Every structure is written in C-alpha cells, then in structure tokens.
Amino acid sequence: MKVWTWVALIVGFALAVFVVMHIGVAAVFGAVVGVGWLGFIAILLAAMPIIALLALAWRSLLGPVVPFWVLFVSRQLRDSATDLLPFTQIGGWVIGARAGILAGIPPIRAYSSSVVDLTCETMAQIAFTIIGLLIGFTKLQASAEMAGYVDALILGTALLVPGVIAFVVLQRKGTKLAAKMAAHFLPKAVAHTEQFTAEIEALYQQPKKLALSSTFHLLAWLATAVWVWVIFRLCGADISLMDAIAIECILSALRSAAVFVPAAVGIQEAGYAALAPVFGVGPEIGLAVSLLKRARDVVLGIPVLLIWQAVEGKRAFGGGNGTEAA
After folding, report:
1. Which of 6, 13, 48, 85 is nearest to 267 (CA)?
2. pLDDT category, 40, cuts 50, 70, 90?
3. By Cβ atoms counted within 10 A, which residue in 58, 172, 216, 309 is the most buried?
4. Any residues with CB less than 8 A from the CB of 6 and at least 6 apart, and which?
5. What is the C-alpha separation between 10 and 242, in angstroms, rounded?
6. What is the pTM of this model?
C-alpha cells in the first residue's frame, strides 16, 4: 500500500477518535449498546437486500453465466475487502471479480463488466444524491453549520455528470487507459487488451443492460438509506424515512469525495455526527449509527475474508496458480 494511503488512513482514524471524544464516549457507546443483540441481528439481516440488489446489478451486465448466489458472495467479498482491508476501492473490485472468475465467469468478462458496473453505480449515485438534496435542501439551508456547504454539494454533484461521461468515453476510445486497466486487472494477460476493450465496448452498446444495472444500483442506494433509517430507529431516534434518505445521500457523496481514504475512515463518522443534528437527531446518535455500520462490516466481513483467504490458499497449495486466462 502506498505511503499516502497510510497517511490518509492514520488521519482518518485520528479524526474518528477526535469526533468520539468531542461528542462524549459515554453518550456514543450508550447509544450503541442500547441497540442490544437482537437489534444488532436485525441490522445484519436488514443489510442483506442491499447486497442482493448489487448482485442483480452486476448480473444485468453479465447475464446468467453463473448462479445468483455466486454473484451475491462475490459482491459481498468485494465490499468486505473495500471496507476492511487497508486499500482503496480498486482492490475490492479486483477481489470481487476474481471470486466470480473462480466460480466460472470468463476473466475478461468478469473484469470488463466490473468496470462498466462501476459506471452504472456512479450514474445511479448521481440520481440518488439529487434525490437526497431535494429532500433535505430546506433543512440544510436552515442549518447554520451546513448552509455554507449546500452550494458545494450541488456543484460536486453536477461535476459528477461530465466526470462519468469522460470516464465512459475514455473506456471506449482511450486505448492507453484500456491498456492500463488490463495491466492492473490482468497483469499476466496484457496481450488481451484488445479483447478487454471490445468487451467494454460491447456492453456500452446494450442500453437495456446499462439501464437495468443502473436501476438496480439506484434501488440498492435507496435500500441502503432504508437500512440506515432502521439503525437510527433502533438507536431510539425519531427520524423520518425521508430524512434518513437525505442523510445517506449526502454521506454517500462525502464518501465518494474521500475515495482516497480507505473505507472513508473518519469521514463517515464526522459526516454522521454533523448531519444528524440538521435533521433533529443528536450527534451521539449519528455517530452511533456510523459505528454500528462499521460493526456490521467487521462481523460479516472478517469471516468472508477468512474464507476467501482459505480458498486462495487451497488453490495455491493445490497447484493452482490463479493465472487469468482469456
């Protein structure tokens, strides 16, 4: 991992600790513990539809090449790697795609569809952020602390649109970028750059698949907001579903802006603590929601990653070298 990534991670942890200390350890952990074991189990279960929708988004691009459960597990593995391992999102994408490869997805298709899936996810996030800004605009403008950031949020969302367009154009027309992608995703198969580019181009020529994948991604974003609303309610917060959607929309934008910070450590915690009071909830509840989300990532993610490591280890000692062939 690069030095700057370690620096970002350390700064993020320091920010998270500062926020907890500033709000009050007793108040924050009191809200967390108040959820109870049954409440935490409910949090674990309530997140499952999100992963299912994300798997459906990927399947919309791939087609029924493998059973749905393979995509479900691969997508959970991708998210767990992104949330828990000390690197940014690109490592999670590679691991998730590789899991699909081991289950029978052709390597070029797995990696190319992962790239296009990212585009669909980003397009859906733009729509999701717009929804959140429309819902929360009045309260954000009325907040002395957040009013100054509203214009920046709107501008940032607007800039995502040409950013996505440029990303798509570069994927389809930029042979240098395609070569770099192939070199990163397929280090032992750079010779397949043309096939990698052709697979991406073929996907972009199927608008129905792109629309369906983007729709599932938007539903997944909305399901994440519903999940966050459930956590708020379990923490004792009297918050509406619409307000929870607004909070999660803005948090997703903050996480995207802080993509260089692994798992948005510190950014997520500070964001929830700052946004919760805007919508009538104490900052300690907002921070508790963030910590409970982290707890879910750890409780579910560690077993998933350990199983993955065992599978990779078995392949290595069993003579499989994991080389991606076309």
Report:
1. 13
2. very high
3. 58
4. 86
5. 34
6. 0.84
